[in-house]
């Protein structure tokens, strides 16, 4: 699948898919990588080392720093894939060095499948 490169790099991992936007500030614990937002589709799941697939981010600009903190703590996703990456997620991915691609049809992806993200080329492939 061809998309748009947001934050350079390459990574692979099992897909963790959210049907709803993610707020990193107050929604993800940077110490553990666990989604803590009450009622969120991924509540209780850990994003560490996964290819985190979600439509877009939401919430406070502090979310960019939470993404950075996830990387510093070793609890960040391996890569992020979005339908539309907004500035909070884009800034966080760039600061944290997390490969990020958007303009991907998320309906074509399945939870748990292995994905390879090449954010240098803007591609997501099954692998």
Fold topology:
Elements lengths: L3 E4 L2 E8 L33 E4 L8 H11 L5 E4 L4 H10 L3 E3 L11 E5 L4 E4 L1
Helix pairs in contact: 1-2
Entry keywords:
127 residues, alpha/beta, Glucose Oxidase, domain 1, 7-stranded mixed β-sheet
Helix content: 10-25%
CATH class: Alpha Beta
Question: Termini separation (Å)?
Answer: 12 Å
By DSSP, the count of extended strands is 7
The quaternary structure here is: single chain
Tally the helices: what do you get? 2
How do the strands line up in the largest sheet?
A: 1-5-4-3-2-6-7
Q: What is the H-and-E element order? A: EEEHEHEEE
Number of domains: 1
Global Rg: 13 Å
Mean pLDDT, to the nearest integer, reads: 97
Notes on the protein architecture:
The protein is an alpha/beta fold. Helices cover about 15% and strands about 25% of the residues. The chain has one domain (about 5-125): Phosphohistidine domain (Glucose Oxidase, domain 1). It is globular and about 30 Å long. Strand 6 and strand 7 form a beta hairpin. It has helices at about 65-75, 85-95, and strands at about 5, 10-15, 50-55, 80, 100, 115-120, 125. The chain has a 7-stranded mixed beta sheet.
What's the short version?
It contains two helices and seven strands. It is α/β, with parallel strands linked by helices and 127 residues long. Helix 1 runs parallel beside helix 2.
């Amino acid at each position: 699948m061809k998309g748009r490169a947001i934050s350079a790099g390459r990574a692979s991992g099992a897909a963790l898919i959210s049907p709803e936007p993610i707020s990193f500030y107050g929604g993800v614990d940077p110490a553990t990588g666990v989604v803590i937002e009450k009622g969120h589709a991924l509540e209780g799941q850990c994003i560490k080392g996964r290819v985190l697939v979600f439509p877009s981010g939401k919430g406070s600009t502090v979310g960019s720093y939470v993404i950075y903190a996830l990387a510093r703590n070793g609890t960040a996703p391996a890569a992020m894939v979005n339908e539309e990456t907004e500035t909070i997620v884009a800034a966080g991915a760039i600061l944290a060095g997390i490969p990020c691609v958007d303009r991907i049809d998320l309906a074509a992806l399945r939870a748990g499948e292995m994905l390879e993200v090449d954010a240098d080329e803007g591609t997501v492939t099954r692998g």
